[in-house]
Amino acid sequence: MMGWLLRKCEKCNQYTLSVSVCPYCKSKVHIPHPAKFSPDDKYARYRIALKEGSIHENHDKRRT
Ligand SMILES: [Zn+2]
User: If you placed Cys at 9, which of 22, 45, 47, 56 could pair as Cys (CB 3.0 to 4.6 Å)?
Assistant: First the structure.
Protein backbone atom coordinates (compact mmCIF):
# COMPACT_ATOMS: atom_id res chain seq x y z
CA MET A 1 0.00 0.00 0.00
CA MET A 2 2.18 2.82 -1.21
CA GLY A 3 -0.15 4.38 -3.70
CA TRP A 4 0.06 7.73 -1.98
CA LEU A 5 3.78 7.84 -2.76
CA LEU A 6 3.19 7.58 -6.46
CA ARG A 7 2.61 10.39 -8.88
CA LYS A 8 1.03 10.01 -12.25
CA CYS A 9 2.12 11.81 -15.38
CA GLU A 10 -0.55 13.99 -16.91
CA LYS A 11 0.74 13.32 -20.38
CA CYS A 12 1.88 9.72 -20.69
CA ASN A 13 0.01 8.38 -17.63
CA GLN A 14 3.12 6.73 -16.29
CA TYR A 15 3.34 6.24 -12.57
CA THR A 16 6.49 7.60 -11.00
CA LEU A 17 8.02 8.21 -7.62
CA SER A 18 9.17 11.60 -8.83
CA VAL A 19 7.14 14.35 -7.21
CA SER A 20 7.96 17.12 -9.65
CA VAL A 21 8.15 16.02 -13.27
CA CYS A 22 7.65 12.86 -15.25
CA PRO A 23 11.04 11.18 -15.81
CA TYR A 24 9.82 9.96 -19.19
CA CYS A 25 8.41 13.05 -20.86
CA LYS A 26 9.18 15.81 -18.34
CA SER A 27 5.51 16.68 -18.02
CA LYS A 28 3.78 17.63 -14.82
CA VAL A 29 2.79 14.85 -12.48
CA HIS A 30 -0.14 14.79 -10.14
CA ILE A 31 -1.29 12.60 -7.30
CA PRO A 32 -3.46 9.94 -8.87
CA HIS A 33 -7.00 9.92 -7.65
CA PRO A 34 -7.79 6.69 -5.87
CA ALA A 35 -11.41 6.87 -6.93
CA LYS A 36 -10.70 5.16 -10.22
CA PHE A 37 -9.29 2.14 -8.46
CA SER A 38 -12.00 2.25 -5.80
CA PRO A 39 -10.05 0.59 -2.98
CA ASP A 40 -13.26 0.59 -1.00
CA ASP A 41 -14.72 -1.86 -3.45
CA LYS A 42 -11.67 -4.08 -3.10
CA TYR A 43 -11.98 -4.07 0.66
CA ALA A 44 -15.69 -4.62 0.37
CA ARG A 45 -14.95 -7.81 -1.50
CA TYR A 46 -12.58 -8.87 1.24
CA ARG A 47 -15.20 -8.02 3.83
CA ILE A 48 -17.80 -10.06 1.98
CA ALA A 49 -15.35 -12.95 1.72
CA LEU A 50 -14.55 -12.70 5.40
CA LYS A 51 -18.22 -12.42 6.25
CA GLU A 52 -19.12 -15.48 4.22
CA GLY A 53 -16.18 -17.32 5.70
CA SER A 54 -17.27 -16.51 9.23
CA ILE A 55 -20.85 -17.50 8.44
CA HIS A 56 -19.68 -20.88 7.18
CA GLU A 57 -17.44 -21.19 10.18
CA ASN A 58 -20.34 -20.51 12.52
CA HIS A 59 -22.50 -23.02 10.68
CA ASP A 60 -19.81 -25.64 11.06
CA LYS A 61 -19.41 -24.90 14.72
CA ARG A 62 -23.14 -25.13 15.34
CA ARG A 63 -23.43 -28.40 13.46
CA THR A 64 -20.58 -30.10 15.24
ZN1 LIG B 1 5.11 11.47 -18.83
Answer: 22
Residues 15 and 3 in one domain: yes
Counting the structural domains of the chain, the total is 2
Q: What is the number of other CB atoms lying within 10 angstroms of the CB of residue 15?
A: 14
Specify the DSSP element, H or E, that contains 15.
strand 15-16
Q: What is the pTM of this model?
A: 0.46
Domain that residue 48 falls in: 34-64
d(CA 15, ligand 1 centre) in Å: 8
In tens, the pLDDT along 28-62 reads 999 887 655 555 666 677 677 777 776 555 556 66
Are 41 and 56 in the same domain? yes
What is the rounded average pLDDT of the residues 6-18?
Answer: 93
CA of 28 to the centre of ligand 1 (A): 7
